[in-house]
Amino acid sequence: MAALALAFFVTALLYASVGFGGGSTYTALLALAEVDYRLLPLLSLACNLVVVTGSSVRFGRAGVTPWRGAILLTGLAAPAAFIGGLTPIGEAGFLALLGGSLVFTALSMLLPVAGGDPSRPTRFARSMPLVAVPLGYLAGLVGIGGGIFLAPLLHLVRWNDARAIAATASLFILVNSLFGLAGQVVKNGSGRLGAAVELGLPLLVAVAVAGQVGSLLALKYLPQRWIRWGTAALTAWVGGRLLLNL
Q: Are the C-beta atoms of residues 226 and 235 closer than 8 Å to each other?
């Protein structure tokens, strides 16, 4: 458990530094540790909530959250996240989908952070609500927040400036994690939630501390490019290992 808590700490530190929760990598680390796969989304979504709640509050207080657009995207995704949490899935399919999601995540993190002048969005910017629903469903199904997929797309279509996109992704992850967790609890029962919390309490403490440290590093010390590359490398390695173990 000590080694797993350390891995969660490093993951949360890296992901919080770039404005994400880390749910996809938490799930993969638990799978590699051979934890019951039915507990994985419960633990990962709970860790997501711990990491991104603080950042969402900070963005809101700073006045950088574009509430109208962020609420539209999040409102469309949330019911899909709940349905994803309710959806039964076998272990092999779950791990294959998770591994593929991680590899795609790593690639998405290598995309440019900004896509040009945000005051001149591309013609695809208005279609972003269409991607919110499938991302929400994926979030609930495999225990991720979905913001790590949403943010690169928003940058590519110049949906808004970088800080507004980070704030939107943070809110997206927070709400999707909450609704996805609710769906998982309904599907698996409160007893399994209790087992997940009992097993994962040290992990929740680790990500809570790391989330604050990661935010501090991002603000004061480390270049964002280095953090993103490090996070992408970790994510690709974990996702690749999952796929190779199938």
A: no
Q: Which two tokens stand for residue 234?
A: 């970790």
Mean pLDDT by runs of 10 across the 246 residues of the chain is 86 77 81 82 87 83 89 95 89 82 76 59 84 90 82 83 83 92 85 78 87 68 65 74 73
Residue 102's closest CA among 220, 188, 23?
23
* DSSP codes, the chain: -HHHHHHHHHHHHHHHHTT---HHHHHHHHHHTT--TTTHHHHHHHHHHHHHHHHHHHHHHHT---HHHHHHHHHHHHHHHHHHHHS---HHHHHHHHHHHHHHHHHHHTS-S--S-TTS--TTGGGHHHHHHHHHHHHHHHT--SHHHHHHHHHHTT-S-HHHHHHHHHHHHHHHHHHHHHHHHHHH-HHHHHHHHHHHHHHHHHHHHHHHHHHHHHHHTS-HHHHHHHHHHHHHHHHHHHHHT-
The one-letter amino acid code at 191 reads: G
